[in-house]
Amino acid sequence: MNPKFHLASSNLNFYPRSQVIHEGVEYGLAQTDNEPRLAVLADSNNPALAAFTGETSPLQNRTLCLCPLNAHNAAALRAQLPWLQPRPLGLATSAGLGDRLGLATPGHVRAVRAVGGGIAPIFAQQSMREMARTGRNPQLVMDNATWGTFQEGWQDGVGADADHLKVPADIDICLAAGFTFFTIDPGEHVDNRAETADLNLLRELAEKLPAEVGPGASGLLGKDFVIEGLSIHFDEATLLKAAVKYGKAVAHVAMMYRHLEQAAGPRPFELEVSVDETEQPTSHSEHAYIASELKRLGVRWVSLAPRYIGRFEKGVDYIGTVAAFESDLAGHAEIARHFGPYKLSLHSGSDKFSIYPAAMRQTRGLVHLKTAGTSYLEALRTIAAVNVDLFREIYIFARQRYETDKLSYHVSAKLERAPQPEVVSDWPGLLEQFDAREILHVTFGSVLTEKTTDQKWRFYDRFMDLLRANPEAYANNLEKHFIRHLQPFLLAE
Ligand SMILES: [Zn+2]
């Protein structure tokens, strides 16, 4: 304990890593009777005190303010402690550890710290879709991550990913909440007819493209790119297929980028482009087309998520041949080095243990790993260990929801292959069964928002109370799980 830390004499029960002195003001996160609160101690006339709202009392000739963990105080804390403010991460090897519950950041911080801090972390990250599913909003996602980062004393910097943004209004709300990493998803503007269209149809569809990406605008016709081991030739069919498939998406990204640039003003931000949720893989020539066109239209981006070959299903390992993935990825990485450099992003990146080494090798560290739902599964693992009855209830409900909830995800689990609840004896072990794992993964929104006939939460309160009552167990599960995710992304010494 720091002898100069006067808060220590307050008899408050502090999270040890949260205690910090900055510009003469002491801060700490304290566990009070029924909730954690922020403690701020300073001379009474210190302007930093006025930034916070809470109960004040005298302590050793100073003023102690005990503050509830609300949005106002989270913003004030970010303003006072600059390392809590999200910032662009640039080309550093990075990982986004999304949290759908608002309780996972402490475990995430511990995992990043455990591997030596060589990976730039994003703790605030949620897509608009997942927020809608759980009744959360960008400010809440940001603030939950702030409190967790503060609790664990992480001062080495954080990014914040506003994930899968589709319209300009998404940008505005996330910018206001303090996000700095904007993932633009133009997936709805990808035209899959290009995959099967003949040259005549391609010509016809190309005529209908927006003018700024219309035929001829790219200047790519007849061009050759020889990039390291890769050679790409844009004959008419190759170019038209790429333009028809991705032209509208490119125009959409450019529109979103201009909106972001204007809305952000002087505030720094970085952009990711993600087309990972499309039907068909992104070919190398299509990737080159996207990058060349985005550059031509003045877009600057730090990472890009093509749709890779094979299957990236939620919460399970890569499905496909790892060697084939690696050689496909090698081409994407060459393109990213040539047109950027920018990072390749691995969406649905959780639990893809078999491909992490290849991803690191081929990108040479220019890679961003994105995970989210796997932290929810670790919450379920925590629940399974302390309250099997609740976990069983959730599993039975998840099975009922699966056929509906799976529709907006890439999953191949089959209900009939997942163990019937009556025969399960090892409940935590259920999380290792492929089908059960996917079923539990994609039904999180229903589990967290289901209400009983008298309008009470069916699971949410019990779920969250249990995690709050067992924070160390949850953090330990997360730490263990994410060390496995992060270790393969450390640069070799
Ligand atoms: Zn994604």
Helix count, DSSP H or I runs of 4 or more residues? 17
Order the strands across the largest sheet as they lie in space.
7-8-9-10-13-14-15-16
pLDDT averaged residue by residue:
95
Q: What amount of the residues lies in strands?
A: 15-25%
Question: How does this structure look, described?
Answer:
The chain contains 17 helices and 16 strands. The strands form three sheets. It has an eight-stranded parallel barrel with strand order 7-8-9-10-13-14-15-16, surrounded by eight helices. The model has no long low-confidence stretch (mean pLDDT 95). Helix 12 crosses helix 17. It is an alpha/beta fold and 493 residues long. Zinc ion binds next to loops. Zinc ion (ZN) binds next to loops.
Task: Give a brief outline of the structure.
The protein is of the alpha/beta class. It has 17 helices and 16 strands.
Which SSEs are present, and which pair or pack?
Blueprint: E1 13-14, E2 20-22, E3 25-31, E4 36-42, H1 47-50, E5 55-59, E6 62-67, H2 71-80, E7 94-97, H3 105-114, E8 120-127, H4 128-134, H5 138-151, E9 159-165, H6 168-176, E10 181-184, H7 199-207, E11 224-227, E12 230-233, H8 236-264, E13 270-274, H9 284-296, E14 303-305, H10 322-339, E15 343-346, H11 356-363, E16 367-371, H12 373-386, H13 388-405, H14 434-442, H15 444-449, H16 460-469, H17 471-486
Parallel strand pairs: 7-8, 7-16, 8-9, 9-10, 10-13, 13-14, 14-15, 15-16
Antiparallel strand pairs: 1-3, 2-3, 3-4, 4-6, 5-6, 11-12
Helix pairs in contact: 2-5, 3-17, 6-8, 7-8, 8-9, 9-10, 10-11, 12-13, 12-14, 12-17, 13-14
This protein binds zinc ion.
Zinc ion (ZN) binds at residues 164, 274, 276-277, 347.
